[in-house]
């Protein structure tokens, strides 16, 4: 062991097991201070404000239990470092220096009631909650049986459902919004007794992050949302002074996040020395009490040290001075608690040395057991991408419409609203929220005003019918909508969220791609989040310009784990939306703005049980000479062009995909094999668009059935303009389709 606290050379068996080394605490050999090193005794019990007799006192057994967890956490880190250097762990990021405050947090958690969103330096938290060294080292090895994800995530992503440890990703700061969503759902479920669900306990949410994570916008959005609704969330910011190589004073204005947020309404803000276990416990106790009492969220900034480099891919000697490194060693939380135990007489040095030997032996044996565990089978890589219990592509989701006698046709807006209404009446887990979706956030105004109900009036009247607890406006923050929705669904609700325009979705893309879509897969099926996200899309609106006309479905269909649909008719909108709500996967429900109130796609209401399976295309028109594969606003344009083509003797078959991920390959291949010619039409830009994938697969798998090249019609490779004449020139028109039909038929 060097003075930098790196592990000694591997044991003869490679460091996985066998006889343990001497107790390996940084700056110590057999528990004795190294010559010339400060053991931190002068900072073991810092002065506290107020009367020390009024502060809660911790028993000797409590302190020894904390020390055992912190020591085990430290030893697992050291063992993992050794395994990484032998290429038997493939990544390592250390929790050393964070052990005191995270062990204190674990002592205050109620695992049966609370939810914990840990971050990658929370090994002591996970250890004290009950995650074993074997489980943690199995994660480093990537074993199939490791609890966090079966080898699908990097190590130190501490997750185990039975311990209250929610799954978290590697992305910095994204966990904050999920935590707020869980807290929102937790409070909703406590207040409401929902048939079929067990009664919810009055738990809170602990979410942890480093000082660097507070630079992310999602941190501030989460803090704002938590304070707006006084949600039971405790933000624990473990400030070790660095975000990789960037010091905190260059990350955070003033160098102290607590100072920046102290004026947030209803937010209790506290600070502590996170290297001092007792001070950490007292401070966190106050924060936990505040949140449990329903008085609003709390934030604790804990000053800790990052005793190692950011990860083994980093070397902190490149940016930290020798004096700075020495100062961090003096604050070592494990040594400080050890000194406190021996100085108070709670434990002898010999007792603690013996504990160190036992811990090393246990961790060494755990490493040997972990390395013997098999990896997941290669064929398992597709497991848990989607629900294995509910298949929205199955015949279970295929029902016939039941139109009421004399029912008048309704627009797509009418039938989407009707579907939302009947589904909300059926299932009290459904919450509807987003930008401007409520009738009026100030409920008292509803006595005098019509109500908003969405910029396209899709949700009009639903707040009046179901109340503000179930239909409400979110802040103008797209990441909040998707992130909070993810947390709600993880906790057991069925949120239907709306992002007002696809053009403004992009702040939420991190949440969608890296949190929501991958959640079930990376947790190896332990967690799921069946969110429906409604998004108005597309052009042809005359005056929409580049920021109200975008089509970018390919950026979503590209994401494993996410279902994507785009109906072209009111009837399909009703059936597909009901399927989306009742399935158990996240669904992006794209609603074409141009189609909202057209007369040509109207339908009577098909009734409260009408569903359409995902991945099933609709044959709009039968034909013999060529097939056009399309969706969205181009379906009607293809119909107009096909009628004109028929007058010229060209018989066109039109397939409306309706569902983009998954899509109906069987219908495509059957049609193309009959007509032997195919055109793929889509509204997005031609290059790299969704239709390019369909065209490529047709050319690959149906080449021998083709009598002509696969053709495409799409928007020009530019932005949609505001000027109506330019918009018409940019987006595909019936004339473009007719020309393509003619050329394809003549080939």
Quick summary:
With 747 residues, the chain is an alpha/beta fold. It has 23 helices and 21 strands.
Strands, total number? 21
Class derived from helix and strand content: alpha/beta
Helix content: 25-40%
Shape: elongated
Return residue spans where pLDDT drops below 50 for at least 5 consecutive residues.
1-15, 18-24, 26-55
Strand order of the largest sheet: 11-10-12-13-15-14-19
- What is the CA-CA span between the terminal residues? 76 Å
Radius of gyration (CA) equals 30 Å
* Total DSSP helices: 23
Main pleated sheet: 7 strands, mixed
Tell me the strand percentage band: 5-15%
Query: How confident is the prediction overall: mean pLDDT?
Result: 92
Q: How would you describe this structure to a colleague?
A:
- The chain is α/β, with parallel strands linked by helices and 747 residues long.
- 36% of the residues lie in helices and 12% in strands.
- It contains 23 helices and 21 strands.
- The strands form five sheets. A seven-stranded mixed β-sheet has the order 11-10-12-13-15-14-19, with helices on both faces. Strands 3-4-5-9-8 form a five-stranded parallel β-sheet, sandwiched between helices. A five-stranded mixed β-sheet has the order 16-18-17-20-21, sandwiched between helices.
- The longest helix is centred in the first third of the chain and has 26 residues, at 60-85.
- It is elongated.
- Residues 1-15, 18-24 and 26-55 have low confidence and may be disordered.
């Amino acid at each position: 062991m060097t003075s930098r606290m790196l592990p000694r050379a591997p044991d003869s068996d490679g460091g996985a097991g066998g006889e343990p080394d001497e107790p390996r605490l940084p700056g110590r050999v057999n528990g004795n201070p190294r010559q010339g090193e400060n053991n931190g005794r002068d900072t073991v019990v810092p002065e506290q404000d107020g009367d020390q007799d009024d502060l809660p006192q911790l028993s000797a057994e409590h302190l020894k239990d904390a020390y055992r967890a912190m020591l085990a956490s430290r030893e697992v880190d050291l063992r993992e470092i050794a395994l990484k250097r032998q290429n038997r762990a493939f990544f390592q990021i250390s929790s050393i220096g964070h052990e005191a405050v995270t062990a204190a947090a674990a002592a205050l958690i109620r695992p049966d009631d609370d939810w914990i969103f840990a971050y990658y330096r929370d090994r002591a938290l996970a250890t004290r909650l009950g995650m074993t060294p074997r489980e943690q080292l199995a994660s480093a090895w990537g074993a199939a049986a490791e609890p966090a994800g079966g080898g699908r995530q990097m190590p130190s992503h501490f997750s185990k459902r039975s311990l209250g440890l929610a799954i978290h990703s590697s992305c910095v700061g994204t966990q904050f919004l999920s935590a707020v969503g869980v807290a929102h759902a937790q409070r909703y479920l406590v207040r409401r007794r929902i048939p079929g669900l067990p009664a919810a306990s009055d738990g809170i949410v602990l979410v942890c992050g480093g000082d660097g994570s507070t630079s992310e916008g999602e941190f501030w959005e989460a803090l704002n949302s938590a304070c707006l609704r006084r949600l039971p969330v405790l933000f624990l910011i473990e400030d070790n002074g660095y975000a990789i190589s960037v010091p905190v004073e260059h990350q955070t204005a003033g160098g102290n996040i607590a100072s920046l947020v102290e004026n947030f309404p209803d937010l209790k803000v506290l600070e502590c020395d996170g290297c001092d276990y007792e001070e950490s416990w007292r401070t966190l106790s106050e924060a936990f009490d505040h949140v449990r009492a329903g008085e609003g969220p709390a934030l604790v900034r804990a000053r800790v040290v990052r005793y190692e480099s950011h990860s083994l891919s980093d070397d902190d000697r490149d940016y930290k001075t020798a004096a700075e490194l020495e100062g961090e060693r003096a604050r070592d939380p494990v040594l400080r608690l050890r000194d406190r135990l021996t100085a108070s007489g709670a434990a002898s040095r010999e007792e603690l040395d013996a504990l160190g030997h036992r811990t090393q032996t246990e961790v060494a044996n755990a490493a040997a057991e972990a390395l013997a565990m098999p990896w997941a089978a290669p064929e398992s890589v597709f497991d848990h991408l989607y629900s294995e219990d509910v298949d929205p592509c199955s015949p279970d989701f295929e029902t016939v419409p039941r139109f009421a006698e004399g029912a008048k046709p309704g627009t797509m807006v009418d039938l989407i609203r009707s579907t939302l209404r009947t589904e909300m009446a059926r299932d009290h887990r459904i919450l509807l929220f987003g930008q401007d979706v409520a009738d009026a956030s100030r409920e008292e105004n509803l006595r005098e005003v019509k109500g908003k109900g969405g910029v396209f009036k899709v949700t009009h009247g639903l707040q009046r019918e179901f109340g503000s607890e179930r239909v409400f406006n979110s802040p103008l923050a797209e990441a909040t909508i998707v992130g909070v929705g993810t947390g709600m669904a993880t906790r057991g609700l069925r949120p239907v969220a709306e992002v007002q325009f696809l053009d403004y979705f992009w702040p939420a893309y991190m949440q969608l791609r890296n949190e929501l879509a991958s959640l079930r897969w990376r947790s190896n099926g332990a967690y799921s989040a069946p969110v429906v996200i409604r998004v108005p899309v597309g052009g042809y609106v005359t005056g929409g310009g580049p920021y109200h006309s975008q089509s970018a479905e390919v950026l979503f269909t590209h994401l494993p784990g996410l279902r994507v649909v785009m109906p072209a008719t009111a009837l399909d909108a009703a059936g597909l939306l009901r399927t989306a709500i009742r399935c158990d996967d996240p669904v992006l429900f794209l609603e074409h703005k141009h189609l909202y109130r057209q007369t040509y796609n109207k339908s009577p209401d098909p009734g409260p049980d009408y569903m359409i399976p995902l991945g099933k295309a609709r044959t709009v028109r039968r034909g013999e000479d060529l097939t056009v594969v399309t969706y969205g606003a181009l379906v009607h344009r293809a119909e107009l062009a096909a009628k004109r083509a028929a007058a010229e003797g060209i018989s066109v078959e039109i397939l409306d995909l309706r569902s983009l991920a998954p899509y109906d390959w069987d219908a495509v291949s059957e049609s193309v094999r009959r007509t032997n010619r195919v055109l793929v039409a889509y509204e997005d830009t031609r290059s790299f668009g969704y239709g390019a994938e369909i065209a490529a697969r047709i050319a690959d798998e149906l080449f021998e059935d083709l009598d002509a090249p696969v053709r495409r019609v799409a928007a020009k490779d530019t932005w949609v303009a505001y000027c109506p004449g330019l918009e018409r020139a940019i987006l595909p028109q019936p004339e473009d389709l007719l020309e393509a039909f003619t050329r394809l038929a003549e080939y």
